[in-house]
Design a protein that fits this description.
By secondary structure, the protein is mainly beta. It is built from 1 helix and 10 strands; from the N terminus they run αββββββββββ. The radius of gyration is 15 Å and the shape is globular. It starts with 5 loop residues before the first helix and ends with a strand.
Length: about 130
């Protein structure tokens, strides 16, 4: 739907922000190595998980006509070494919200993560 009205885009962005904060826990973003899941319905391989970052509640910082900006995540310790290739965002209920390709949808200063190192996200904007 590339030709939606401003009001429709705003409604989608607000609904997404509400979905992210639903559930009893905080929303998270998990970085993985290897081939991304085929789609958001396909379970991610837990053996490929490198690090899990947690958003504060509420996780959304700003809802605009074009994007939802999330607050920065916490700083987490990398649990496995590897080249991160994709990330999955989960809402507070543990439901998949979005899959992101590293280098296309999300940019990291260093994609080669080393066990014991740390990672955080300072800025993330999701566009409907």
């Amino acid at each position: 739907m590339s030709n939606t009205s401003i009001k429709a885009r705003l409604a989608m962005a607000q609904a997404f922000a509400g979905f992210m904060d639903s559930g009893e826990r905080s929303a998270t973003v998990v970085f993985y190595t290897g081939t991304p899941a085929a789609n958001t319905e396909t379970a991610a391989d837990p053996d490929k998980k490198l690090v899990t970052l947690t958003f504060p509640e509420p996780c959304f910082k700003e809802v605009t006509l074009d994007f939802v900006e999330l607050h920065p995540t916490d700083t987490a310790t990398v649990i496995e070494s590897g080249q991160t290739t994709w990330a999955r965002i989960y809402n507070g209920a543990g439901d998949v919200a979005a899959d992101l390709t590293v280098g296309t949808d999300i940019t990291l200063a260093n994609t080669n993560l080393v066990v014991g190192g740390t990672l955080s996200i300072q800025s993330i904007k999701l566009r409907p």
